Amino acid sequence: MTPDASRGVDKLLAAAGIDAADGVQLVAASRLSSVPFDPSLPLLILRGGPPATPPLPGRHARSGPLDVLGSLYPLTHGLTRLGDGAALTLDSLDEATLLAADWLIGPLDAVDNLASPHGMAAISARLRAPDGCPWDRKQTHRTLRPYLLEEAYETIDAIENGSPADLAEELGDVLLQVILHAQFAAEAGEFDLTDVYRSIGAKIVRRHPHVFGEVAVDGVAAVASNWEAIKAGERATGGKEHDGAFGSVARALPALAGSREIQERASTLGWDWDAIAGVWEKVHEEITELRGAGTDDERLHELGDVLFALVNLARWMKLDPEEALRTANHRWVARYRNVERLAAERGVDLDALTLAEKDLLWDEAKRS
């Protein structure tokens, strides 16, 4: 910013009665959809201004500056035109008027600041306050574990079966779990939400030197290999004890997901078949051994080997075994509902049918 521009901004802040030391954001109106800002701080919108070059993708689902403001603030939220002091609301503006003047938008409080993670963090702190919610005040990292898993699975269901609105809602539920865990840690003086943001941001930049650095890669396999090498370096730099190539596979992962993670990691280390034909042979070998198992312990052992081999087969086919099994579960339930519907339409008691009669209904339900 040039000295003249800086003096001009100082005058605008003084005219609005804002002390910059308390925090303020300055954004050109034409760049509102291209740069992030926090509605919990005063926002000084400068007239016009060049658009972002190149445009920054993914900042907002909205494109126009007025549309962006309307997604972050209530439409009845006030703003002041600097110069003549006119007080207006967002719903009384058009885009031309917005772009033609300098404006000040006052901050939102926590409850109104619903479009910002900063607002949600303030809400979670309020829930945990001495006069907050009794249920929230009782929770700990450990007591929230089942909710984190539940919300993650509900998000998967929204991806597979829901609408965009359903997915946005479920992602919000997952985000709430992250914010609450960060709040617990902040209360204990361990870390806060900014540390969570900083940690994941730094990690993703560090592990993508082919995007944010000068490293050249040739395809997905090279990216995966670099990723594992960078992770190993992080463990060494952080002084973490080396627990073998598979020590960082999360023990709480569901078995199918854990098996896939183990086999993908083994592949990056060079432990893999030359072709899928070898994987098929291994599946048949393990099924044969399961058939020949004589005790419960042997059958449990061999069944595990069969499942492990099938997960590897899914990996070679570029399929997700968890998704495949979940889809099969849904398909079976849907077919059984068709069986129930057919039986009800015909006045048939399912429990009274023989297995052969049930199979006929099942085949008919499959065809329908």
For the largest beta sheet, what order do the strands appear in spatially?
Answer: 1-2-5-3-4
Q: Under the CATH scheme, which class of the largest domain?
A: Alpha Beta
| Low-pLDDT segments, ≥5 res | none
The value of Rg in angstroms is 29 Å
Number of strands: 5
Strand fraction band?
under 5%
* End-to-end distance: 68 Å
Following the backbone from N to C, one meets helices and strands in this order, namely HEEHEEHEHHHHHHHHHHHH
Instruction: Kindly report the average pLDDT value.
Output: 85
Structural class: mainly alpha
By DSSP (H or I, 4+ residues per run), the number of helices equals 15
Measured as a percent range, the helix fraction is: 55-70%
According to CATH, the fold-level topology of the largest domain is: Methyltransferase, Cobalt-precorrin-4 Transmethylase, Domain 2
Which CATH architecture of the largest domain would you pick? 2-Layer Sandwich
What is the global morphology?
extended
